[in-house]
Amino acid sequence: MSRSARPIIANETKRKLRNGELALGFGVSHLRTGATALLAEASGHDWLFLDMEHGAFSIQEVTQICIAALPTGVTPLVRVCVGALDEGTRAVDGGAQGILMPHVDTVEQARRLADAFRFPPRGSRSWGEAQILYRYQLPGHAEAQAAINDEILIVAFIESMEGVANSAAIAAVEGIDVLLIGISDLTTEMGIAGQIAHPRVVDAIEKVSTACRSAGKVFGLGGVYDSENARRYLGMGARFVLTGYDHFYLLAGARARSEILRAAL
Fold first, then answer.
1. Band of the pLDDT at 128, cuts 50, 70, 90?
2. Catalytic site residues?
3. Is residue 231 classed exposed, middle or buried when 0-12, 13-18 and 19+ CB atoms within 10 A define those classes?
4. Per-residue pLDDT tens for 47-68?
5. What is d(CA 179, CA 13) in angstroms, rounded to the nearest whole number?
6. Domains of the chain, CATH where assigned
7. In the structure, what pLDDT confidence band is assigned to residue 3 with cuts at 50, 70 and 90?
8. Residue 256 Rama label (left phi>0; alpha psi -120 to 50; beta)
9. Among 131, 155, 132, which Cα is nearest to 142's?
10. Is the peptide bond before 121 cis (omega within 30 degrees of 0)?
């Protein structure tokens, strides 16, 4: 390491997952300031879920939130639009420590995803000089590329029965770290929208969980916010869990506060 180089900013969520710990995600659709990660940290979360698929984010807004998050230890992760590998590469160049790709249905899609966000020889990511994970003070290219490859977290969303059927093959792809069930889209595709405890859904989730265990990958979950079903699916091994979105938290807190004050009269 040269005299001016700095250590890479560690992906703390990836470390927790390697240790089998629970890592909770703070969904972001509306927040836009550098305080976002501090709010996530203060409320007991481990990673940010910056939603470029359904949130009205610009790449500039996403990168500024990512940069602000890095010193806090809260891991900035970005969900891009379906197949938007170019959008994802700009996000990781801008400070994101991982990418969440929706609707990964086939092993071919999983391979393209794993390849796009890691440098050769593990992938085909293009090198950019401004490496934010090193605070712009990096060692030699080869050393930096190898270290960055290890820190990036790649999450494949399983949101269809095709994805469930292919989950074992997807989990076996080198470079895919997490398979995350998107339960809202999955139940919609199954024709039982919102029925997250339906026996068919339980069977599908068990299949993905088994695929993750067999391949040594992490099982993730989004869209389950009640305690009963959370216990059920955490019991199946879910460790990378989205707890909800910023607007849910705001509404829950605001409603509770207004009810307290109205009841006081």
1. confident
2. 54
3. exposed
4. 999 999 999 999 999 999 999 9
5. 15
6. 12-153+218-263 (3.20.20.60)
7. low
8. alpha
9. 131
10. yes
Residue-level pLDDT at 164:
98
CB of 80 closer than 8 Å to CB of 101: yes
What's the burial of 260, exposed, middle or buried (CB within 10 Å: 0-12/13-18/19+)? exposed
- Specify the DSSP element, H or E, that contains 41: helix 36-42
Both tokens of 187, joined, read 């139940």
Classify 190 as helix, strand or coil.
coil
SS3 219: strand
For residue 54 the two structure tokens come to 């359904």
CA distance 234 to 188: 22
Residue 147 to residue 168: CA distance in whole angstroms: 28
Question: What are the backbone angles phi and psi of residue 49, rounded to the nearest 5°?
Answer: -110, 85
- Inter-CA distances, 8 with 71, 134, 144, 179, Å: 11, 5, 8, 26
List the one residue out of 145, 151, 146, 115 whose CA is nearest residue 129.
145
Angle between helices 59-69 and 85-93 (to 10 degrees): 40
